[in-house]
Amino acid sequence: MTTLLDVEHLTLDLPPNADRAHALHDVSFSLARGEILCMVGESGSGKSMTASTLLGLLPPGVQVSAGRIAWEGAGNLLTLPDAERRRWRGSRIGMIFQEPMTALNPLRTIGDQIGEVYRTHTRLTGSAIRARTLEWLDAVQIPSPNETAKRYPHELSGGQRQRAMIAMALALEPELLIADEPTTALDVTTQAQILTLIRDLQRRKGTGVLFITHDFGVVAEIADRVAVMRHGEIVEQGAAQTILTRPSHEYTRALIAAVPSLPSAASATSATPNTSRASATLPVSIDATPPVLRIEQVQKTYAKRSWINKKTHAHTAALRDVSLDVGSGKTLGIVGESGSGKSTLARAILRLMTPDAGRILYRGIDLATGTLDAQARRDALDIQMVFQDPFSSLNPRRRVGDIVTQGPIARGESPREAHAHALELFELVGLSADALDRFPHEFSGGQRQRIGLARALAMRPKILVADEPVSALDVSVQAQVLRLLSRLKAELGLSMIFITHDLRIAAQLCDTLAVMKSGSVVEYGDTAAIFRSPSHPYTRALLDAIPGISGRSRDRLNDAQADAQALSAA
């Protein structure tokens, strides 16, 4: 294969007050046409900084001090004039950014932003641009492409925004595609579709793909070669099969071992049979003890109104007769794709929205009613939330100590009591006492999620609702947070509702599982039993779509995990 890209001894200097001298140090790798190179590592390892260097998008204060980036063996991308580099971006080099909400323009429609790629780099007519835009929206599995093209980023779900950005990056079928964690926030079925789309482009057009990820499940699925990064350096690189089966560096082995796995057949043989049922019925009793929270036939329909004449012209059924139980001291997992109703149900439980029908019963209180008396409102505070994105849910202008103590103080605790409790919680979640005086931006993603967890626990909840709390974290940090949640549940006697699109994670933590599709519960029962013998086609489709689980990729990853665990134990 022809070499497309050669990165030679690349070093990036950080500003003088940074926590280390170099963002990248002596980084060298190559990428051939038609090859997928997976760059793997935790947050701060230098993966995204490598991508930014290739695009000429380095942040202020970071500069190249050594190295060369050759394109097809000639030239140096680092010395391209700015105007020439702008022409390359989008046409010859495409980029899928990790965070779509910051990469998309909030003031322009999705269709207009995808069309801009064609207006900038081609001479297509307006009608041809619109047709191509709709084709790509359909290719990335966005529902109702015509309607979605007219919407703004804030009107789409996180997964839909990510798919729209993927469409922008693939629109001109670039020679080099840089994908920075492009599927982290996506459902497993959409993730599988996007990986197939990228593989198709790679094979059909000979596109070179630099795929940045922290998930060795994805690596086992698509990688030709792998480069493992840590603290700005490549610690190991080579053919994917070699890295997966014979990793030489202990850091690589730790990353492989941290990938969540599904229950084995042996562990599921004694499980209670699962119950596939129509969601309109009342909850099926799975546990002998009375539920701490009961959800009965909850319904919610969203109506889209015109801002001109206020007429309703579209209805979306977000919840259709949802009935579930949360057992005392147990974890109920809710899984499903984007738009299945998971987050709407969470908002209803937390009284952030009022359902149209049904009951949500806690301690004799119906949380689905519009008004509660003073005592009922206090009881409702027993249910607290850990949000998906800890950075956007933490006030950037307040120190984290103030953020964690704000709720208890508002509820009547003295500042001294609230501060003392916050110190205890920070120790419990693995943060030092001096963290209380720092701001959210001074922490890593995993640390911010721990802060979000401490804030929820500060209210001394009985039930914790965790909405995709680890989806954006590295697999090693993800494993730490999952272990922390399991320990806290045991120590504090918490009941949990754990919302996720990743069935591997649900398998690690959840006692019972509810699978949602289009607002309905299509399967509900014991977690291990559902994994052993899923009864609904949708559940089977979710399981089959998990990266690194099926076929050859599963065998590669299972062998790699067994070897990594054996070497770690030795």
TrEMBL record:
<dbReference type="InterPro" id="IPR027417">
    <property type="entry name" value="P-loop_NTPase"/>
</dbReference>
<dbReference type="GO" id="GO:0016887">
    <property type="term" value="F:ATP hydrolysis activity"/>
</dbReference>
<dbReference type="GO" id="GO:0005524">
    <property type="term" value="F:ATP binding"/>
</dbReference>
<dbReference type="Pfam" id="PF08352">
    <property type="entry name" value="oligo_HPY"/>
</dbReference>
<dbReference type="InterPro" id="IPR003593">
    <property type="entry name" value="AAA+_ATPase"/>
</dbReference>
<dbReference type="GO" id="GO:0055085">
    <property type="term" value="P:transmembrane transport"/>
</dbReference>
<keyword id="KW-1003">Cell membrane</keyword>
<keyword id="KW-0997">Cell inner membrane</keyword>
<keyword id="KW-0547">Nucleotide-binding</keyword>
<comment type="similarity">
    <text>Belongs to the ABC transporter superfamily.</text>
</comment>
<keyword id="KW-0067">ATP-binding</keyword>
<feature type="domain" description="ABC transporter">
    <location>
        <begin position="5"/>
        <end position="256"/>
    </location>
</feature>
<keyword id="KW-0813">Transport</keyword>
<dbReference type="InterPro" id="IPR013563">
    <property type="entry name" value="Oligopep_ABC_C"/>
</dbReference>
<feature type="domain" description="ABC transporter">
    <location>
        <begin position="293"/>
        <end position="543"/>
    </location>
</feature>
<dbReference type="InterPro" id="IPR017871">
    <property type="entry name" value="ABC_transporter-like_CS"/>
</dbReference>
<protein>
    <submittedName>
        <fullName>Microcin ABC transporter ATP-binding protein</fullName>
    </submittedName>
</protein>
<dbReference type="InterPro" id="IPR050388">
    <property type="entry name" value="ABC_Ni/Peptide_Import"/>
</dbReference>
<dbReference type="InterPro" id="IPR003439">
    <property type="entry name" value="ABC_transporter-like_ATP-bd"/>
</dbReference>
<dbReference type="GO" id="GO:0015833">
    <property type="term" value="P:peptide transport"/>
</dbReference>
<dbReference type="GO" id="GO:0005886">
    <property type="term" value="C:plasma membrane"/>
</dbReference>
<keyword id="KW-0472">Membrane</keyword>
<dbReference type="Pfam" id="PF00005">
    <property type="entry name" value="ABC_tran"/>
</dbReference>
